[in-house]
Amino acid sequence: MHQAIPYRTCIPTTSARDHSHAGGIAESNGADPANVATVVSENAVVIIGRRGCCMCHVVKRLLQGLGVNPPVYEVHEDHEATVARYLFPHAAEELQFPAVFLAGKLFGGLERVMATHISGELVPVLKDAGALWL
Which InterPro entries match (predicted)? Predict the structure, then answer.
């Protein structure tokens, strides 16, 4: 019988005010954006979005349907700008949520993920990022 490969379902947080939830969702109630950078660098795929955002759920379900179990990092609306500035200090545009990071780099938002999926290019991109092994 084959044994399943273990995967991380919770995002570790270091702030005393952060709360991790089962299902790969971490809430950021603190203003420490370094947690987000750590999560992005340690995972092949990460979804960063607003707290309670239904589009984050859509992206997560799409990726789960392809065999990827992406963690979701929820950012409280009071800290969105801080997190965006920390991740992209020299960006001319503001980071829009949900933001999908592959292999530590910004892949895009919902539109990019859906367009790549429809064109059939998403699975190879996920394989290159190390999120899929098959």
Answer: GlrX-like_pln_2, Glutaredoxin, Thioredoxin-like_sf
Give residue 40's region: left, alpha or beta (phi > 0; psi -120 to 50): alpha
Average pLDDT over residues 14-18: 39
CATH number for the domain spanning 90: value is 3.40.30.10
Instruction: Encode pLDDT of 42-68 as tens digits.
Output: 889 999 888 888 899 999 999 999 999
CA dist list (Å): 38 to 7, 14, 24, 43: 17, 10, 15, 9
**Domains: count for the chain:** 1
Q: List the one residue out of 2, 4, 35, 1 whose CA is nearest residue 17.
A: 35
